[in-house]
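Hi P.,

Sorry for the delay on this. The queue was packed all week, but I finally got your sequence through. Input first:
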Amino acid sequence: MRAELDTLSFDINGNLLLTFKTSKGNLADIDKYNGKTLELTIKEYKEKRSLDANAYMWTLLNELAKVLNTTKEKLYRHYVQEYGSFTVVCVQEKAVESLCEGWEGRGLGWITDTMGSKLGGCVNVLLYYGSSSYDTKEMSRLIDAVVQDCKEQGIETMTPEELELLKEEWK
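Then the structure:
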């Protein structure tokens, strides 16, 4: 559910009280939780990217793969590593294989790489996030890189105006 934090206060026992504003919804859906202990997760809202933009990226990757004599999947992984987001974690050597298998099992773009650590018995693991987790800005950067490489190879792409309209759909 999408909501905006409205007020923060404390009751007389020192308990934190949070008030949220949401769009109109079905009160019955919320009322069933009244008086129950709940587990809440609060995170910043991010606009979802357009599936049309995702489809366009895969179309371009397919055309680029033909020209470069490779696969669209290999190209996609290259772009994720080159232009995507990642986190570095330091883990014990014995845990590296398990971590990498678990991370990469999330999908094609969930990639791992390793590098040495200054800590004995440990390895730094780079965890690249798949584009399914990207926000509008991250996906835009990825598509812009693919479009640029397609242009360099003489592959027809959308005009800058068409591409901007596609990106506007994300907002």
